[in-house]
Specification:
CATH superfamily of the largest domain: Histidine kinase-like ATPase, C-terminal domain
Largest sheet: 5 strands, mixed
Oligomer: single chain
Radius of gyration: 25 Å
CATH class of the largest domain: Alpha Beta
Length: 353
């Protein structure tokens, strides 16, 4: 039986499928897809195949549930389609090499499983995209309206001449304009990430942090917070999309300023090892509630009592770090604060010829 063949040859099917997928030009396979994804896809397809061969009427539902889990687990629709297709192709090739007969009925069932799995993925993808797109647009419009209203009201008061620009009303106007700028910058980064528009180049970390420091200092001063920066030497570089990296660090700083206690301190530090560059953003938010660290990077997740913003910043940060070959770590210190670390591969100098 085909299901028994898949079960008995699981390890070889996984190895062959990884080799097949690793040569795929578009979309380029990720480490997570090859290491964790291929076994997961195979096991789910085998489960669907088992149900189908036993004429279980629940197969379309099971396939859709598997597809939904994969999409929510971070796999793209293209990865779902290519992985399922690659596994089915590997199964048939291996069966042919081992002269294991696949009956017409079993072959038809295998293809039906593939169709159901892909159809379930496409349906779930469309449903999630439509829901998230509508929800996100609503959040964006709401946040834009709030910031614009604050800016317009502040400007009207200043225009009357009854208060000075250096007072608290001027501070409200400045924060509103800075909020609009941050919102637009984040949306542009989101568009670049979604469209795959990544332009990586050599970035000198010290110069990059100097650019970030200028805008961040203004924000810290407006909020009455202390802000310090500790950088690295000129020879420390990363190979990254500068605009996306600026959005990552900028969003993490915005969160740090937003949640740090009154008159508290926020620190931006960089340090390097032989092969990594670590950019730390430390706040004094008081720490995170138990069990919330893993949920921070989901879209529309927010922490703390201040609910302004879209709740998309950390999701964009996580994706932006991964686009640049890195990742983000969170260290929680209950009662004190958090340290968010952007962990990037260090660009090593070219060897002398």
């Amino acid at each position: 039986m085909l299901h028994d063949f898949v079960t008995e040859n699981r390890a070889e099917i996984i190895e062959r499928c990884r080799a097949k997928l690793s040569t795929r030009p578009v979309p380029r396979p990720t480490d997570m897809e090859l290491e964790r994804g291929v076994p997961l896809f195979l096991d789910q397809l085998a489960d669907t195949l088992r149900l189908a061969l036993s004429s279980n009427p629940a197969i379309p539902t099971t396939a859709a549930e598997h597809a939904a889990g994969l999409l929510h687990g971070g796999f793209t629709i293209a990865q779902v389609v290519h992985n399922y297709g690659g596994i089915c192709q590997t199964i048939t090739e291996l069966a042919e090499e081992n002269e294991v007969p696949i009956t017409t009925s079993e072959f038809r069932t295998l293809n039906a499983c593939l169709d159901d799995a892909i159809a379930g993925a496409v349906t779930e993808y469309s449903r999630v995209r439509e829901y998230e797109g509508t929800e996100r647009l609503g959040h964006l419009a709401h946040e834009l309206r709030n910031l614009l209203n604050s800016a317009v009201l502040s400007y009207d008061v200043l225009k009357s001449g009854s208060v000075g620009i250096s007072g608290s009303t001027g501070g409200v106007l400045g924060r509103s304009l800075a909020g609009l700028q941050n919102l637009v910058d984040r949306e542009l980064a989101e568009v670049r990430l979604a469209a795959g528009l990544h332009h990586r180049e050599t970035v000198v970390v010290r110069e990059f942090l100097e650019d970030v420091e200028a805008a961040a200092t203004l924000e810290a001063n407006a909020r009455g917070l202390q802000f310090s920066v500790l950088s690295v030497s000129d020879d420390v570089t990363v190979y990254a999309d500068r605009q996306i990296l600026a959005s990552v660090v900028g969003n993490l700083l915005q969160n740090a300023f937003k949640f740090t206690r009154e008159r508290g301190r926020v620190s931006l530090r960089a340090h390097a090892t032989a092969d990594r560059v670590l950019i730390d953003i430390e706040d004094q938010c008081g720490g995170l509630p138990p069990g919330t660290v893993l949920d921070l990077f989901g879209p529309f997740e927010q922490r703390g009592a201040d609910r302004t913003g879209l709740g998309l910043g950390l999701s964009v940060c996580d994706r932006g770090a991964r686009v640049n070959g890195g990742e983000i770590h969170v260290h929680n210190y209950p009662g004190t604060g958090c340290i968010f670390t952007v962990d990037l591969p260090r660009q090593l100098p070219a060897p002398f010829s």
